[in-house]
Design a protein that fits this description.
Layout: H1 4-41, E1 44-55, E2 58-69, E3 73-80, E4 88-92, E5 95-100, E6 105-108, H2 125-129, H3 133-136, E7 138-148, E8 151-160, E9 170-176, E10 182-188, E11 194-206, E12 209-219, E13 226-236, H4 247-252
Antiparallel strand pairs: 1-2, 1-13, 2-3, 3-4, 4-5, 5-6, 7-8, 8-9, 9-10, 10-11, 11-12, 12-13
Length: 255
């Protein structure tokens, strides 16, 4: 019986060490996702972008401007083409709205509408105006390390918290170890089936920080479909008031 004691102590010590390592990994994954979110948006951000919706038999482009502040405030304004100009999407905390100037209506985005296409693209309402959800609505777990687009990346699974108002049940992220940018993201539904894959390219310095200036969102079950998002200009960490992110501002904004 005495001979078993060291063995039992060794097993207990190994299990305790494993728990500590697992806990550290979980914390590390959450920290990495938070740092990645900050790297991409800063305390505040402004960007000018072109979205290109590509289909097997047609292509459509839109120009837009985007503002964010913290994790709770964001506003996107469409500036072209003429038929969509002035359309806007607003997020304040957990509430979201779309402004459609053609019918002069503000439409509140219910949780059931988060998964709907934004302006006919392969991005959802949730993807475009609720980006910080990945930080607050998911638990994070380190999966492995990998190489993506020639750079070392952490691969992290973000699993939706119970009752979180989100579209995706799981999101797998490839986050660059050098820039903390998301270089690849896979979006899974409640059946753990892949729905969309986003990849990012052309990392450049804008607004005194590195950002990926081109994103591609590709649906898994629609061959020949994808949406590209190209960033032309970006600024970060400037003063902007909370009341800029309002329904009145959303309706008043112009190109």
């Amino acid at each position: 019986m005495r001979k078993l004691v060291p063995a039992l102590l060794l097993v207990s010590s190994f299990l305790a060490s494993s728990l500590v390592v697992s806990s550290a990994w979980a914390q590390s994954a959450a920290d990495i996702v938070t740092l990645s979110d900050r790297q991409m948006r800063g305390d505040s951000s402004y960007s000018e972008m072109t979205m290109k919706i590509i289909r097997p038999d047609w292509t459509r482009s839109m120009s837009m401007k985007s503002w964010t502040k913290g994790q709770d405030l964001s506003l996107v304004l469409v500036t072209a083409p003429a038929k969509d100009k002035g359309s806007a999407s607003l997020k304040r905390q957990r509430e979201m709205w779309n402004w459609l100037p053609s019918i002069e209506r503000v439409i509140k985005i219910a949780p059931s509408m988060l998964g709907q296409s934004w302006m006919g693209s392969d991005f959802t309402n949730d993807d475009l105006i609720n980006q910080s959800s990945i930080v607050v609505d998911y638990d994070h777990q380190m999966v492995k390390e990998d190489i993506v687009d020639g750079v070392k990346a952490w691969v992290i699974d973000a699993v939706a918290k119970p009752d979180a108002p989100v579209v995706w049940s799981k999101v797998r992220l490839w986050i660059s170890q050098s820039t903390y940018l998301q270089r690849k993201v896979e979006f899974y539904d409640e059946f753990d089936e892949l729905v969309n894959t986003m990849a990012t390219f052309d990392v450049k310095t804008m607004g005194e920080r590195q950002i990926a200036t081109r994103m591609e969102m590709v649906p898994a079950d629609k061959p020949g479909n994808k949406t590209e998002m190209i960033t032309h200009q970006a600024q970060f960490n400037f003063a902007i008031k909370d009341d800029f992110f309002s329904q009145s501002q959303m309706k008043a904004l112009r190109d």
